[in-house]
Design a protein that fits this description.
single chain; alpha/beta; 2 domains; 3-stranded antiparallel β-sheet; 42% helix
Length: 313
């Protein structure tokens, strides 16, 4: 049977690299696409003209399909959408908002639309909005996350039961075994984020990449639910947030503590104390910074081995 995700995107492997802020520029996206997966440019941390440059460079670096991820909370989203159309981007992943807002516009332009969800309820809303596929993301994932703390293991079969469109599993997947497990549960493919942060092509700061590799079990925590739930490495800033909670901080106080450009400070500029360090639980399984192509190859090799082993049960 033809894999629906490979068919939808025209890719060799059902592996999608997440469009992570401060990590997913044109270098990473083109490297993953050239390796047979689907690379994504993360527009959430880019000004409109910066996004245009990344798209143009990505087009020169790969002849393969690639996508752009746009968080719907982005203030100048109409400018980003205009650039998407003008530059001829064929696949868009939307997140953090209502898919009804932009899906019709994108579909009219012949663009394939995928929306990121964290629950069955939002998966159904995305399907009703007309998206072509969804990313069902468990709360193990890094960055911004669902409030319900539903794990990938529970979320994928629950979503599979209710929707008919293709499903990408995300959250806690950094190995071929994890990929196989997600697909056995009903996913058509996987979206991998944290593993690609620790890649040579990721635009995140080297010291942040090293802190991901050094992270052990329990090194991350979901926090700041009053603003937008986010999974962070436990650094000084994280401890400051916990202290604020202990002091009974209001949402307004937490917002003040967070301030502006905190994620950029940590992940892009490498301030491991004061920065917001977004990464998934699966960081505990990541032990090495590698080229993106090697990561794709490793995922597929492990996947095939795990599949063979599973046939013995």
């Amino acid at each position: 049977m033809q894999n629906r995700i490979k068919q939808l995107f025209g890719i060799e492997y059902p592996i999608v690299q997440a469009g992570m802020i401060w990590a997913s520029g044109w270098r990473l996206a083109s490297a993953v696409s050239n390796a047979g997966g689907l690379g994504i440019i993360g527009a959430g941390s880019m000004y409109p003209d910066v996004l245009r440059t990344h798209i143009e460079k990505c087009k020169k670096a790969t002849q393969k399909p690639f996508a752009v991820n746009i968080p719907m909370l982005y203030p100048d989203i109409d400018q980003l959408m205009q650039i998407i159309v003008e530059t001829g981007v064929k696949i868009v992943f939307t997140s953090a908002g209502n898919p009804k807002t932009w899906t019709p516009f994108l579909k009219e332009k012949g663009i394939t639309v995928v929306h990121v969800v964290s629950s069955v309820k939002f998966a159904l809303k995305a399907e009703q909005a007309g998206v072509d596929a969804i990313v069902a993301e468990g709360f193990e994932a890094g960055g911004h996350n669902g409030r319900d703390e539903t794990t990938t293991l529970v979320l994928i079969p629950a979503v599979k039961e209710k929707v008919t469109i293709p499903i990408l599993a995300a959250g806690g997947i950094a190995t071929g075994r994890g990929m196989l497990a997600a697909m056995v549960l009903g996913a058509d493919g996987v979206q991998v984020g944290s593993r690609f942060v620790a890649s040579e092509e990721a635009s995140s700061h080297e010291v942040f990449k090293q802190s991901v590799v050094a992270a052990g079990e329990g090194a991350t925590q979901l926090t700041l639910k009053e603003l937008a739930p986010v999974r962070l490495l436990k650094n000084k800033f994280y401890q400051d947030v916990q202290q604020a909670y202990a002091n009974g901080a209001t949402a307004e106080k937490l917002k003040e503590l967070l301030g502006r450009a905190r994620a950029k400070k940590g992940m892009f500029e490498g301030d491991l104390d004061e920065g917001e360090l977004e990464i998934g639980q699966v960081a505990a399984l990541i032990n090495e910074i590698k080229p993106a192509a090697e990561i794709v190859k490793e995922l597929m090799t492990e996947f095939e081995i795990a599949k063979t082993e599973a046939n013995h049960y």
